[in-house]
Write a structure and sequence with these properties.
Blueprint lengths: L7 H25 L10 H5 L2 H9 L2 H12 L2 E5 L2 E4 L5 H6 L5 E2 L20 H11 L5 H6 L1 H29 L5 E2 H18 L16 H10 L7 H14 L3 H19 L8 H7 L4 H32 L1 H17 L9 H14 L8 E2 L5 E4 L5 E4 L4 E4 L1 H5 L22 H6 L13 H17 L6 E3 L6 E2 L5 E2 L5 E4 L1
Parallel strand pairs: 2-8
Antiparallel strand pairs: 1-2, 3-5, 4-12, 5-8, 6-7, 9-12, 10-11
Length: 495
Amino acid sequence: MSFREMAPDSVVGLSLTVAIGSLVGHVLYRAFFDALRGIPGPLVCRITSFWTYYHSYIGDESSRINELHARYGPVVRIAPNEVSFSDGAALAPIYSEKGGFLKAPCYSNFDIEGHSTIFSTRDNGHRAVRSKAVVPVFSMSNLRSGNDTIEGCVGAMIARVKKEAAESCAASKNSGQPVPVDMLNIARSLAVDAVSSYLFGQTFGGVGEGTGKMSANAYVDTLVAVGRFFFLPNWMFLALELSRQKLWPDKAEDASTLKVDGFVSKLVHGSSKDDSTYQGRLIKAGLSTHEIEVQCKDLLFAGTDSTGTNLSTICWHLAKCPESYAKLRKEIAEADAKDPSYNPQSLRYLDAVVREGLRVSMANPTRFPRMVPPQGFSFEASNGQHFFIPAGTQVGLQPFTLHLNPKVFPDPLTFTPERWLDDVTPEMQRDWIPFGLGARQCIARNLASMELVLAVRAIARDNVLEGAQAVGEQIEMMEWFNSKIKGEKMELVWQ
């Protein structure tokens, strides 16, 4: 009997049998016979990527991957075509040696308005034209020449903290209840002003907006939330984002985005081909006006989010650790008395506080995915195990795992600046990656570091944390690509 002569119900039954058989065969192949079958991991991760998608969405993926490493070892299969490493020995070959592996396709999810940014592009040639144009503004010599600009932003932030601290103290006494100050909001205000003032030649004016939420906050929070979908295929990512914008529009998000768009548009259209500003260098490199706006908005977001999170985390921990705060103040007072013109980055305890803050803060807690090149990747772990990862596999390491590894950082959940003073091991230096690693690490890392050093010094020098108490027992975050502080605030109270 031919297929055409079969009864309709028989055709349906045969089709279902074939479909189910194909699905079962596909599952069995992924679970037991494909090229990654020798990499340990839970069965669900061998079969489907939805385990990683789900945990990324709910914001506990880094913790769950950490648990997989504790169970399965330094190399774990977390999806049908993805492997996670917890051994810092894998950092160099994946990210820095010979330029490192190519970025994974999911980075295109962070393109903006049809343009790849310096961060998101996977094309090294495309990136080279743009990064070559702007890298000089992030050199330490140029940053030192722009020191007064950044110091001016820091001074304005200190004045605001003092004002809000005094108001908090007075309100607490009057009401009998603690009235908190949101340091995340203030730190973000400083970050957006420092980035815009130093790089663009015009200040956004975040610090001066008053005690309410900074106007760029909703814009930043929206892009942070995009990170929960970072690892999705691009078609799925775009479908979800378009659906979210159509079905659940947010007036605060729209207003904040318009404010940022207006600021960037004005500064780009008012600039010329010169080397004094970030946008001027991109104009000189021949980029379109729209792309320059995109590159500037991406930089505003990244600088505001990461430095805001890092600085507020440091302040919260210093309020929790009065001994560390006292040591910091003593070092700075002695340096000020000895030579007021000293380089603050030369102060060892100040450097240790910032390093430790960057270790525990983790503005980007999850992995930086890369693709294994055509020759494959042969890796020998520190415990002697050997693994071969075939070409085309997505691989990565997450700062969350490295920064909280008790074998490298004893008592890793404790804020301990002293660990960076005298007993710094090669493994500590290797596994501390707050700005990424290799040729594709954060282009603005020098600026971010200088902001933190100058801001923390000013906070200690002016003793603005005197009488401050941190709200909460710990800082909780959503472990998206860019971490989101739960509650979107980090609070101190002055009493």
